[in-house]
Structures are given as C-alpha cells and as structure tokens.
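Homework help thread (please don't just give me the answer)

Our assignment gives two proteins as sequence + structure token strings and asks us to describe the second one. The first is just a warm-up. Here they are:
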Amino acid sequence: MCQATHGPEKLQTFRIKVMRQAKATIMSVNHAQRVDLEVVADLIPPQSRVLDVGSGDGLLLELLQATKQVDGRGMELSQRGVNECVARGLSVIQGDADKDLKFYPDKGFDFVVLSQTLQATRNPKLVLDELLRIGKHAIVSFPNFGHWRVRLSLFVEGRMPVTKDLPYSWYDTPNIHFCTIRDFVNLCEELGATVEKATALDANGQKIGLSMPWWFWNFFGQQAVFLLKR
C-alpha cells in the first residue's frame, strides 16, 4: 500500500532530477556564450509547440526537448547549422527568416523563438511581424547596442566596438541592424505587440532588477530577452 502511494511521487522526483541534470549538461557546453538560452527556456511551458527561427547548432531546441518535452521545429539559414541540428536528432530545415516565414500558418505554434538573430535579418520589422503572426507568443533575444561599454568604445576609440556579445569586426559581422533595448520597445509599440515579460542581462549574465526603468536596462543591459504577444 505504501509503495502504491509514494511510487508516483518518487517517479516525479526522479524525473525532475533527470531534467535538471540534462539542463545543466546541455548549458555547460556553451553557457559562457549563450546565457540567454536558459532565460528563453524558462519562459516556455512543458509540451509546448515551438518553432526556433535561426536554430544555429540546435542548442536551444535540444535543451527544450530534454527539459520541457516540447514539440520542437527549427529553421536555420546555414547548411552547416542544419547539419549540426540533424546530427543532434532535431527537426530543423534550411530556410531564410526574411523570406520563408510567410509559409507558416497563423498561430501554428505556441511559441516562436528568435534568439540572437533579429539583428542579422534584412528586414527586422517584417520578421518580428511574422513571428507575432505565427506564434501565440514570440520570444526574442538580442545584444543591446546601447550598453555602456559599446557607447564608451565609440566615444573613446571612435571605432565600432568588439565585445563578448558583438564579437565581429565591422567588415565581417553578420549583424546588419544593430538596435538598443529602447529601439526594440519602440518597434514593439509600432507593431501593436504587448510585452508580457522582459529580462535584461548584464555583462556577467545576471538578470537586472525588474523594477529598474527602461533607460537603466538600456545602459547596463548587455543583452535582452522579450516575451511578446499580439
């Protein structure tokens, strides 16, 4: 009788332990470079239908499937990225966010994620508009060009900055539309998007207090994660 009563509880405890171990293992692979992924993953409930636009090497989808058992799909521009995702056992196709999102149906996914990719698109406004159409919720993360280190580099050195979150030189960067947190908030307002949650991360990957005003996030946030809906 005791075994029947406590069996489900023990099983649930075991599942939670396994999920935490999987999360720690996956994030340790690339945690220093992509601290935003854990923040993104925490915003998505278990068993959600997720489309990851700009999947890269598939780290986020792998994390979500291991810890949240999501029904995950992905789109990645580079063939190399697609190959890496497929090697991880992920369902990812090759596609261009600027051109191919129009083929997805309205509200076809619970969450559409665009992680560290918006600034590399040719038409960020159109891409964000499509994300809000395809998903019941959209999650967007991006490096903040308004961070004080970026401003200082431009002011003191007079050169385009190279930082941990903006690691490319101006002549070989894939980023073609830099923006600040305030720029992104203004774009959301233009598109009629509601900000459900937002998180700014400092240079150490630590969350900045939610009570801080936008200008504080814009100055001290090295990157940001937004949960949106429309």
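The one we have to describe:
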Amino acid sequence: MPLYKTITVNEETSLAIWKVEETEENLWTGIELTPYCQNRFDGMKSELHRKAFLSIRHLLAKYDYTDADLIYDENGKPHLKDGKLISITHSHNFTGIIISSAEHVGIDIEMQRDKILRIAHKFTPFEEYKTLANTAAVVRKLTIVWGAKESLYKIYGHRGVSFLHHIDVQDFKFDDHKTTAQIIFEGNLSNFKIRFLEFEKFTCVYATRDKE
C-alpha cells in the first residue's frame, strides 16, 4: 500500500508518509500540475525524483489539497493557499508531508547510512556519541540529529543559520521517540519539539513550534 503511515500529532497537526512503489505512469492518475510545477517536473532527469514529486501530490490529496493549492516562495519553501503550514520531504522511495493549522512544522526523512559518520563533525559535536554501544547505534543517532536539524532549518528559514553553531538538539534515548531543540541566532532564541520514528532503515524526524 503506497500510503505507508499517517500520524496525528495533535488536533491541529498531522503527517503522512508514502512508500513509492508505483510506476511513474500510475502515479499520474488523478494528478494535474500547475504550469509552474509542470515546468519543475519536466526539468527532473531522475525518475526517482519525478515519482517522489508525484507521490507528494497524492499525499496532498489525502488532505483534500491539489497541486494548485501549493505555492512556493522565493526561497523554494512550500506554502498552502489557505494559510495552513506545510513541510515536505523525500528520500529515495519514501516521501512525507506534515500539515498544521496551529504550529510551524518541519519534516525530514533520511536513509540510515554509514556515510553520515564522515560528515558528523560538520553538524554536531561528535564526542557526544562516543558512549554508544556500536557503530549502528551511532549512525541511528546521528541520522536523528541530522533530521532534526534539517526539520528545524525548514521551519526557521533564515540564511546563515549553521547546523553546528546555531542549532542544538537535546540528548535523547531511542525509546523516547522525542526530544527538544533550540536555535540561537543573532541573539534570538527559539524552542522546538522534536519527534522521530524509524522504519526500514530510514528515519523520519518532524519538528513543531507554536505560532507566535
């Protein structure tokens, strides 16, 4: 079943994940793109990216939205015309969206891969993870931290924010499935709630912050 999982975060916020298993032709069923999005689609050389793009439109349909309800600002950040807040992600054969009427939201899906060990120092103090039992556990934790910071960046949206220097994710246990995080940038402090889940060697992290 392509609709892989839905999660009701609270009364105002929900997310959905799609596992892309269909052909590109099948994914076109019931989908009509705006000229802007059709132009974006036509420029995609990767079939994987095209299928992800279409699957996200099917996720929008689960919430009674069409492609025409989705607009992008000058930074490429997605917005919904009715004012609800949205974030979008894709990684390999998984895509996801989170929508809220009351909270700023961000979502990120990442494949758990050893290559994250090589770039960890660029986004988090690596010594924090030396106590973990094995490499697999380190990869899992680093992937959650990276996903959290990606989600926060999608919400915050200020250029110049450094994953390493400005975004702090509080430590957590895997069984908690949640933590908190802060962004301190240009003298301003913002607090966020972080939640995460793992499936099929992938990690999904989503962040929320109350509207001001």
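TA reply:
I won't write it for you, but here's a hint about the kind of observation we're looking for: Residues 94 and 201 are 11 Å apart (CA to CA).
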